[in-house]
Amino acid sequence: MDIYDLPKVLLDHGTVLEKHCPLSETLQVTRLDADEKVTVYRPSKVRVRSLCDKEFEDDVDRFHRFHGSLVHQIEVGCAAARIPIYPSYAKLKGKEIYCPSKAELKKDELHGHIVLFTGYGCDENNKVYYQFQETAGTSVGDQGYHYVYADFVEMYVEMEPEMEL
């Protein structure tokens, strides 16, 4: 899925908390019991934010302002993003932070991967990384979660959720 297609999916279908809909590889899989009452989060507003947006252009501090806005989005809700995928992604184990090698970065990425950010942190060198749900399920990574350095995130989907019962 292209990140520019994601806002329509979120507006049309919304999302539910992971405890009600386990990590899955497709949006078409329904894992809810018909009788189960869950909160559906339907965004009232959705937009794709990019490091290249006009508000971040020509600003020496644009990287920090862009990622500051992404961190804020994670703190008030959640954010979906696109990350580049290189061969080293398939080798991630546990809590390793995804960081393609310089050699990989010289080649074309295999594809982009749309992920849902669920947290963030800093490593021992004070470098920002994001935690995200892995659509391959809980048997990969850190019980279904992976981590990626902020350097590899250039776009995200900002959502203003409205709850619906």
CATH architecture: Alpha-Beta Complex
Q: What is the residue-averaged pLDDT? A: 80
Total number of domains:
1
Largest sheet composition: 8 strands, mixed
Number-wise, the strands total: 8
Order of helices and strands: HEEHEEHEEEE
Q: Segments where pLDDT lies below 50 for 5+ residues?
A: 23-29
Shape: globular
CATH domain fold name: Cathepsin B, Chain A
| Spatial extent as radius of gyration | 16 Å
By DSSP (H or I, 4+ residues per run), the number of helices equals: 3
Separation of termini?
28 Å
Main-sheet strand order equals 1-2-8-3-5-6-7-4
Helical coverage, percent range:
10-25%
CATH class: Alpha Beta
CATH superfamily grouping:
Cysteine proteinases
**What amount of the residues lies in strands?**
25-35%
Please sum up the structure shown:
This protein has one domain: Cysteine proteinases (Cathepsin B, Chain A).
How would you portray this structure in words?
The protein is of the alpha+beta class. It has a single domain (6-164), classed as Cathepsin B, Chain A (Alpha-Beta Complex), CATH 3.90.70.10. It is built from three helices and eight strands; from the N terminus they run αββαββαββββ. Strand 5 and strand 6 form a beta hairpin. The protein is globular. The two termini are 28 Å apart. The model is unreliable at 23-29 (pLDDT under 50). This is BnaCnng33050D protein. It comes from Brassica napus (Rape).
